[in-house]
Write a structure and sequence with these properties.
Distance between the termini: 34 Å
Radius of gyration: 18 Å
Helix content: over 70%
Order of helices and strands: HH
């Protein structure tokens, strides 16, 4: 195993941190928006499961958008 210098370790940790943040955002967005959709179904519209389904779809869309924006900021996507 080769020894990494300080700059290589920083780059590795920076990439790992960015990946962890992207994963957390991607997983949290559907949970939050699905929860909002469930609450709208349960307390306002009484149209279960449509608010939950719409909330999950919005959450996945938001999660993908956040991932795209973060990758674009890193210069990995044009």
């Amino acid at each position: 195993m080769a020894v990494m210098d300080r700059e290589e370790r920083r780059r590795l940790y920076r990439d790992t941190d960015a990946g962890t943040v992207m994963l957390a955002e991607f997983l949290a967005a559907p949970l939050v928006w699905g929860g909002i959709g469930w609450a709208v179904d349960t307390y306002l519209l009484h149209s279960f499961p449509w608010g939950l389904v719409v909330g999950l779809l919005v959450g996945y869309t938001v999660g993908m958008y956040l991932m795209y924006v973060r990758m674009q900021a890193q210069g990995r996507v044009e």
